[in-house]
Amino acid sequence: MPKAKEKTTIKGTPRQFNQEELDAKIEAAVTHYEQSPQSKHLIRHSLHKPLLEEFERLILEGYRLETQLPLMDLNFSPYVIALIKPEHLLTEDLEAVKKETKQRYVEELEAEHHHYQSLLLQQLLEAEEEKQRAKQEAEREKLIEKFKQQAAATYTPLNIPD
Predict the structure, then answer these.
(1) Phi-psi region of 15 (alpha: psi -120 to 50; beta: other; left: phi over 0)
(2) Residue 109 CB burial class (10 angstroms; 0-12, 13-18, ≥19)
(3) What pLDDT digit, counting tens, does each position of 74-88 carry?
(4) What is the DSSP string of the chain?
(5) pLDDT reported for residue 154
C-alpha cells in the first residue's frame, strides 16, 4: 500500500523585525570585529629600517601600538608589529560591520517570511486538491450507483426453475 503523503502544516509564525534582537546581533558583530585581525594593521618586514619607517609613518597618521599582540611573529615575517587603526578608520569599519549585520538580519527575516509564504501556498494547494479529489470521488460514487441501477434494470434476475 503506498505511503500517504503528509499534509503541510505551519507551526508558529515568522519573526518580525525586533530592534533588540538586531542590537544584540550588532553588539556581537562589533565585539567579534574588535577582537579580530581586521581591526588591526600589521606591519611586516624582513628588515628593521623599512619596518621602523612604516611604523613611524603610521603612528603619525593616528595608528597606535597594539600591546595585546606579540610584536614578533616568525610565522609571517621576521618582524611584525601590530597596530590599532586610527579612530576614523575604526569608525568606518564599525559602521560597515553594523550595516552588514543589519542587512544579514533583514535577509534572514525576509527568507523566513518567504519560507512561511511558501508553506501557506503549499497548504492552500493541498486543501484545494483534497476538496477537488473528494468532489471527484463523490461524483464517481454517484455514477457507479447510477450505472448499477441501469445494469440491474437491463439484466433481469435469473429465473431458475426448482
Answers:
(1) beta
(2) middle
(3) 455 678 888 999 999
(4) -PPPPPPP---S-PPPP-HHHHHHHHHHHHHHHHTSGGGEEEEEESSHHHHHHHHHHHHHTT-EE-SSS-S--TTT-SEEEEEEPPHHHHHHHHHHHHHHHHHHHHHHHHHHHHHHHHHHHHHHHHHHHHHHHHHHHHHHHHHHHHHHHHHHHHSPPP----
(5) 86
Radius of gyration of the chain (CA): 37
Please list the residues that pair with 45 across neighbouring strands: 79
Q: What is the pLDDT of residues 93-134, one digit of tens each?
A: 999 999 999 999 999 999 999 999 999 999 999 999 999 999
